[in-house]
């Protein structure tokens, strides 16, 4: 995943002319204003852009930068937040249905959540009791994504509709899982390129849960901000490594086959959906940072500077698994992380990784509680995540420097059509 390149500064606004007035702005429920209509065919209109204005001390409002106006669409074939670019701020939150809540209450909740997500992703305030936290910002590429955990189906009497692909993940030797921060009936992923916009969405989703569901766990993450690098590039993780080089790309002919459930797939309500594996992976940074750069590169199998395989070339050059150095040693070590995770070394198993980094402070021993909120998307986790993780379990050099501390698997249905809510085919089918 790459971030958009830095955009040049906008030129100063032309002086205001007398005569014909600009089109009126629509008042929002909190007394503010939304943007005037965007002329058809303009760049902003094509991108679903200007829907809000930043407050300014003068009478005329200045339009938001492209960072604020970028908008993801709520309605569509797939839910947002899967193929969208990495965002700089993220929140992951799991809910359990309240005692006594069932299918009826779950349907009402998903209807509320979907409407709130639609409004906030359009840069509008939520329908009820909006906090005003994000009143000065546009959509900022906000996405809100909803999924169902294994336990949701028993709670709602829908066991017969539970997909076989949602069977609990097997235990892995690298797991040190906190059950209180794992799984859940419902899962929500929030991402945005503005921290206040992301928090605003998190707060609105939590408030919408009302008496129907309670928070089971919640995690916060971040990525590099769009435009922070001189040119678009693959993201880095907290180990300083470029992370995501071999991600499947939408332009590839088998991308949909790898990432999304077929339109005629089973069960029918999961058509065009995907499965999300969520893992909180703590990085043992003090131990990692004691290694030399060369040792770090041998653990990963790629150069730290540019992400190129140790067999040579650039970041995107195919890794040569047979290449040796002058002493006859493999250029890419046999237990290097990048070698083990290659799809062609795992029966073609592939997953779309879309993570956030996290840092939750310093513990009592002075060690950072930091790492990766690993999120991967696949059409079937039994063919995507599980075989790769099993292989990593047997000899990944990176395992010495990470610890899997929480885990979840969620069925994420396809996108909602206009007038529908996410999960409607399941809950009303």
Automatic annotation (TrEMBL):
Residues 79-223 form the Dyp-type peroxidase N-terminal domain. The keyword Lipid biosynthesis does not apply. Its cofactor is heme b. It holds the Pfam family Dyp_perox_C. InterPro entries: Dimeric_a/b-barrel, Dyp_perox_C, Dyp_perox_N, Dyp_peroxidase, EfeB/EfeN. The keyword ATP-binding does not apply. One of its GO terms (cellular component) is cytosol. Residues 1-46 are annotated as: Disordered. Coiled coil: none annotated. It is found in: Cell envelope. One of its GO terms (biological process) is iron import into cell. Binds 1 heme b (iron(II)-protoporphyrin IX) group non-covalently per subunit. Residues 234-416 form the Dyp-type peroxidase C-terminal domain. It is an enzyme of class 1 (oxidoreductase). Residues 15-24 have a biased composition (Basic residues). Transmembrane segments: none annotated. Belongs to the DyP-type peroxidase family. NCBIfam families: Dyp_perox_fam, tat_substr_1. Involved in the recovery of exogenous heme iron. Extracts iron from heme while preserving the protoporphyrin ring intact. This is Deferrochelatase.
